[in-house]
């Protein structure tokens, strides 16, 4: 039925228009209260809507970058923990060398040397095991083949690049070959015929040298091994020197890890603050004041009730005219 099909009095039409407007305002206010936003579409306020959307989109991108930074931080922490573990084992190796120096001058030192060498072999093995077990999500910075790039902004124009390092025994400068120990005679005090001295070799196993008290000759009892003796001050000094070199390299890598960790942590904090700023700015453009909207709703409900009453009164006025007939 068209609007013109029914003739309304001027008062009734005015009240009806007022009720329709009130209903529209109530629907808008209800939407704002339910979404907590005063700008829900470009129709509400184009400038605020598109600016807020751009801020929120950038905040989402930065949050994704922050997640990547967080994972990189964990990777570095894992590497640093491994470096600390290897450092502890190498320091224990240095203590074993001091024990070897003491043992080789004592009577019956062959048995003592065997124990020292066995302990050193186990420490070597555990150093390599630590390196093999290192890593976070399959990435280990104790491998020279690892390279990482962490972007700091959505355009990838700022980033941090870092790579892993050779965390193998040889990569750290540790002696793993008898050739590195040099050659020469080794003397074990108090050795008797048939007594056994212990040696280290590349595969981290323990082999034995038979000392023939008659011929004064020694024979290595394993067929495929690289001899690394534990006797002889010169060789012990070379072994100790390699341990010091390894500690120096680990200290250098630890400093690099700490520097990268500091950069990533600072960037993570910066991105968090930037995201908060962007979201806060977007909210200031679009967020509704719930107290104000609640008051508006009460006022509109009151206005609606008054409008209905006014429309009813206008209708009664028309009915009173009919009574005249």
From TrEMBL:
Origin superkingdom: Bacteria
Compartment annotation: Secreted; Bacterial flagellum
Protein name (Swiss-Prot/TrEMBL): Flagellin
Keywords on record: Bacterial flagellum, Cell projection, Cilium, Flagellum, Secreted
Ranges for domain Flagellin C-terminal: 246-325
Pfam annotation, one family: Flagellin_N
Function: Flagellin is the subunit protein which polymerizes to form the filaments of bacterial flagella.
Cellular component GO terms, alphabetical: bacterial-type flagellum; extracellular region
Domain Flagellin N-terminal as annotated: residue spans: 9-143
A molecular-function term among this protein's GO annotations: structural molecule activity
UniProt feature coiled coil, ranges: none
Source organism of this protein record: Sulfuritortus calidifontis
Family membership: Belongs to the bacterial flagellin family.
